[in-house]
């Protein structure tokens, strides 16, 4: 049973998401919050597996709340899924930087929201990978690769094969797709991804995508 905390400043949205998840089976909504400050407290008290986080909220916005939750006592086990309208590009990227594991639009179909929660909980893939890459590209194109990123993040310790896998993760490929691309087993692909995350101290695949662009390993397209 996956436990979920729903965070949104609109009561109707909270109730709608709660109903969708409760009716799906296999998911239990353990609480909700109307702002970021409440979300941080609830996450610490309830230790949910997944937090569905709105971005724009009073008192403490979703980005700041995400950062506090990911750095808090349950940060190692609680994953944050951002609820967004996809128009707020910089806000989404900022949420990913703060520790969010992915994002999904508020207008998504109920089954997509349920699937998103399961996917984030499993940590198998970054949600909406194509859209995420587009957002990251548009945002990091304005910046130069961060000086010293290779050494600071441990990227210089990656083997040639791990660097290949890292590039494919940054493109948004799943373990199965990476396996097909490199003609290896899905288990081997997953092992490579886990080793990469350990070497560069990444929280998840979303964090790997951010690092790939920040370090200059992947260059944003014009």
Automatic annotation (TrEMBL):
Keyword Phosphoprotein attributed: yes
A Pfam family: Response_reg
Name of the molecule in the record: Response regulator protein VraR
Modified residues (4-aspartylphosphate): 54
SMART domains, A to Z: HTH_LUXR, REC
Keywords linked to the UniProt accession: DNA-binding, Phosphoprotein, Transcription, Transcription regulation
Keyword Cell inner membrane: no
PROSITE patterns: HTH_LUXR_2, RESPONSE_REGULATORY
InterPro entries reported in the protein's UniProt record: CheY-like_superfamily, NreC/VraR/RcsB-like_REC, Sig_transdc_resp-reg_receiver, Tscrpt_reg_LuxR_C, WalR-like
Domain Response regulatory: 3-121
HTH luxR-type domain location: 151-216
Gene3D superfamilies assigned to the protein according to its UniProt record, in alphabetical order: 3.40.50.2300
Domain of life per record: Bacteria
